[in-house]
Amino acid sequence: MKIALLEDDLAYAETFQQWLQEANFEVDHFVSGLDFLRKFPNSQYDLCIFDWNLPDMEGPDVMISLKLRSMKLPPIIFVTGRSEEDDIVRVIESGADDYIVKPVSRQLLMVRVNALLRRATSDYKDETITTFGLLTIDSRQRLVLLEGEEVKLTDKEFDLAWYFLKNEGVLLSRTHLMQVVWGSSADVETRKVDVHVSHLRTKLKLTPEFGWKLTSVYQQGYRLERNES
User: Deepest in the core among 24, 88, 89, 204, taking most CB within 10 A?
Assistant: First the structure.
């Protein structure tokens, strides 16, 4: 079985890699979120182990980017020094399967890994259909319905729409959106975000008369909110 290890602390990475390999797992080690996202589409992993703090992205954002790119995800365990309850709740609610606070023993890590792999052999989790006002999202089939009628979106338009709707009310910077949706850190490409936002505003009618406000915040990014008036 093959495991992806996303960990920028080389001491921890070497230790985890040794434990896993001695248990006959094949391990690919990554130190940055973007490197992992570039590799992921062409690799089949049975499980992922993520740290939270990375040089370029946060682990939860890497996980969300994966959820946008793939209908079927392997189990994901966070192994991190962050122990606040709010952090644990946030990551589990976002789709992680387990959360372990560092330092972690070999026995505990291997028990959690093996338990998740046993559970995953039955099947991957199905995504549900979610309704946002007049919009309905089927994330498994990657369909968007507006008042019951399908709206044709490109892959990136779907990813961006889904991320905005899942983060309703949150101010999202262009750079952050480029990282999560496009898997890119190039600031010069943030114009892509503006173009796609314009398309979404038109296609999904994200305007006040249809119950939404997709607003640009000067030099900061975009925020999607319900229009209560």
Answer: 204
| Domain extent for 168 | 129-226
- Neighbouring CB atoms inside 10 A of 222's CB total 21
Q: Which residues lie below 8 Å from residue 159, measured CB to CB, with a gap of 6+?
A: 68, 69, 181
Q: What residues contact 215, with CB distance under 8 A and at least 6 apart?
A: 222, 223, 225
What span, in angstroms and rounded, lies between the C-alpha atoms of 95 and 203?
28
Q: Examine residue 103 and say whether the peptide bond preceding it is cis (omega within 30 degrees of 0).
A: yes
* Local mean pLDDT, 10-residue blocks, the chain (229 residues): 95 96 95 91 88 93 85 87 89 88 93 86 58 88 91 92 90 87 68 91 94 91 87
Q: What's residue 125's pLDDT?
A: 44
Q: For the chain, first and last CA: distance in Å?
A: 54
For residue 227, give both structure tokens.
């229009």
Question: Partners of 5 in the beta sheet?
Answer: 29, 49
CA angle, residues 182, 184, 188, in degrees to nearest 5: 110
List the one residue out of 65, 121, 91 whose CA is nearest residue 100: 91
The domain tally of the chain equals: 2
136 and 160, same domain (yes or no): yes
Residue 59's nearest CA partner among 3, 25, 8 is 8
The CATH number of residue 79's host domain is 3.40.50.2300
pTM for this model (two decimals)? 0.64
